[in-house]
Amino acid sequence: MKTSEKWCPEEEPGARVLEIRVHGVNNTKPAVMLDADQTQLTQISPPGPTAFWRLNTSAESTPRVPPGVQREAYSWGGLVRSPDAPRGQQRLAAFTLAFQILALPFRIGNVTIWTRQLTMPGVTGWERIQAGATAAAARLFGLILTLLFAMTAAIVMIDLVALQCVVGRETCFLIPDPIPFLTTQGRVLAVASLLGPIAAVGALAYFAKRSRKTYDMLGEHTGTLGDNARAAMRSADEGGYKKATKRGQAIIAHAAFWSNRITAHLARVHLAAAIALTTGIVALHVTAERAAGLCQESIDACAEFFVSSNDRALSSLFVAAVAVLLLAVVAACALPTMAITQKTKGGGTGPALASWTLIIASVLVYAGLFIWLFLDTTEPRPGERSLFGAQWLVFVLVAIAAGIAATGLVWRRDKVRQTVAWAGTGPAIFMTLSLGLAVVTSAATITIASILLRWRWGDLLADVPLAFAYPGGLCAIAIAAVGVSVWVSGRRPPRRTYRVREEAWIGPRDISDDLSGRIESARRAATVYQSVEFIALVLCALLAAALAVGLVIAGLTLTDRPTSGFGWLPNTSAIASMVVGVFLTGIVYYFTRWKPFSSLVAIVWDVACFLPRTAQPFGPPCYAELAVPQLAQRILCWLEKVPARTVVLSAHSMGAVIAVASLGLLRHAEGPDEKPVLPRIALLTYGVQLRTYFGRILPELMGPKVLGVFPARMPSPWGSSPWSSDDDTEHGGRDIPRTARNINGTLLPGEGIRWVSLWRLTDYLGFPAFAGWRRYSPARGGVGSPEPAVLENEIDRYAEEYRDDGDEVDTHSFYERSGAYAAALTDLVSHLEARVGQT
Description:
alpha/beta, two-stranded parallel sheet, 53% helix, globular
C-alpha cells in the first residue's frame, strides 16, 4: 500500500462536509477533541504515532454535529512524545523526558537558521554574502553544540569512569575493581572512548537517520502531492527555493520544503567531527601523560620520547585527528542544507562525497588510535588523574559559540524592526538560550554522574570543567530567577488587562460576582503569560551576562590569574550545579508523573520541533514533515472523490500552524473536475499564535505578507494593557484589503479561502489572528482623511470565557464547546455550500 493510500479510508454515505479537528501542543485526546466518549469513536487510519478518528453512527445522531457534517479528529502528538504512558511504562516515559531535556538545546539551536534573514532569489553583492555567512555561522553553531555534547560524554566516560574509577583505582559505585578484560591503561581508554562520546553521538546519528526515513515521506506519496514534491526536488537547485519564490509562492507552500533529506550529509559531518574530537583528546592525554612522566625522570628520557617511532605514531594520530576536525568544521559551514534536490538522495554529489570522505578518514584515524591503545602494555597506575586538555577545549568551544551568538544581533536587516520579534535579534536570542541550556545540562549531567559514581558530596567542581561549571551555575541561577518571577507574577498578576468593547461579551451578563472576579483574575494572569516575548528577552539577557561572567572567571582561573574579587562564585556555581543536577534527577524519577511540568516541557518541545532540521541534524525530528502531508492528503482524499464535497479545517493552537502549512501544500492540487480544491475548503482556528508569535519570529515563513494579516508589535510589560501599542498604532499593512474575510497573502494569493478565528481575553496562549482588537486603517478615507475608517475584520471573533452549563472559566481549551464555535462552523458550512452551488 502506498503512503498516500493509507490516509484515504472508506467514506460513509450521506455526508457532504468534512470537519477535521487538529489539536495543539497539549496533545488533546481524540475523545475530548470530538466531545464524545471513547466508545463513540472509530479509528479510520492504520496504527501508528498519528491517527484519524471519526464519530461513529451513534455519536453523529447527537445535536452537537450539524446535519450533513462528518466530524473527524487528527491526532499527531505521538510524533513528538508519548501521550500519557501507562503506569507500567513510567521508566520509558522518564527516559524519554530526560532525552527531551538533553536534546532541547539542539532543537532551539536549529531554529536559529530559520530566524535569520531568508533572502529571495536573485540577490547579489553584500546581501548574498551576508546570507551565506549567516547560514554558515548557524551550521557552525550547531556543530559546536554536537561537540559540547561529545565532550560531556567524554568527561563522564573517559575522565570519571576510565581515568578516576578504573585507572586511578578510586572507589566508585557499580564499577568493579579490577575489571578482568581492562588490565592495561590503553584498553581502558580505548573502551571508554568507544562506549562514551563515539557511542553517544553515534546513537544521535542513528536516530536521526531513522527519523529521516520515517518522517520525511512526502516524496513517496502517490497522486498530486507526491508528484508536486518530486517535481520540486528535481527542479530545486542549491540556491534555495528559486522556482517557487520567483512566482511569489510562500516558502512553506513549496512541496520540497517538507522533503528535507539533504541534512544526511551534515549529520555525517557532525559524526566525523565527534570521532575526530574524541581521537584527538585521547591521543593528547596519552601523549602528555607519557611525556610528563618521562620528563620527570630525566632530560634524556624526555628527549628520547619525542624521537621514538612508537610515540611519534601517537603524535601523528593527534595531528591527523585535528586535521579531520578542522575539515569537518569547514564542511559544516560550506555544505548546503536549505536546498532540496533529487540528486541529494542518490549520494553521488559533492556533499555526499565530502561527508563520506570525512567519515572514513575519522574512522581510520580512530581505528589507528584504538589499535595503539589496545597494544599498549602500560598498567593502570593509581593517583590523581583528569583528562588532559578537556578544560581548555571546553572553554574554547563555549567561547566560540558565545561569540557566534553575539553576531546574531546583526543577522537581520528589517526596515520596520518593531514588527519583528526582539527587533530583529532573534538569532542571537535563540543561540543564547540554546547555549545557556547546553552548559547547564552538561554541568548537571557531569555533576549527577560524579555523585552517583562516588557517592561523595564534596567539591562538585572538581569533576566539572570550569567552562561548564561557572557559566552553567550562573545560567541556572538566571533561569531559576526568571522562572520564580513568572510564577509569582502568574499567581498574583498586576491589575492590567485588555480593554475590550462591550459587544465582545457573549452570553448572559447577569453572572455572579464570584465568576466575574475569577474571569477578571484569569484575564490579568493571561497578560503575564502573553508577555513571553519580553520574558524571553529578559531571560536571554541574563543568560548572556551569565555566560560572559562565567567565561571570564573560568579563563582567569585556567590562566592562574587572581580572582579574589569573585571568591563567592565557585561555591555558588557548585551549589547551582548540584541543585540543577538534583532537579533533573527528580524530573527523570518523579516529575514525569506531575502533569503541569511534563506538559510544560512538552509544549516547548512541540513548538521547537516544527521547523525542519537544517542547522542541527541531531535534534528531534520535525513532526511537520509527516503531519503536514498527512493532513493535506486526508483533505485531498475527501475532495477528490466528489466535486460537491467541502472541508472545514478546524485547528487549535499549534495545530493551526500545521493546518496553514497543509493549505499551502494543497495550493496547486486539483479535484476530479480538474478545478482547484482550495475554494472548497474553509479554515476555523482558535487559541492561535500565528500573528503574534510565528509571524514575528518567522516573518519569511508565516509573517504578515505570507498570511495576509496586519503585523503585530511586541507586548509591553507596563501600562494598562500589554497590547495597547499593537491595537492603537498604525504600522505597515497598506497592501492588506479593507475587508478581511480570507487567508491569502503569498501563501494563498488571490481570493484565498474563508477564515474565522476565535479568541478570548482569558486565553494565556491565544490571540487575534488578523489584527489587534481595535484596528483602524486610513485606506478607505485615503491619505490625509480627517477621520480614518474602521477596518472591517470578519476573521477575528470573540468566544465565551465561561460555560453556560456550569461555573467554569475557560482559558486556552474547550473552544469547541462554546457557542461562538458552533456559530462559526455554521457560517463556514453555509459559505461553502453557497460557493459550491455557485460553481
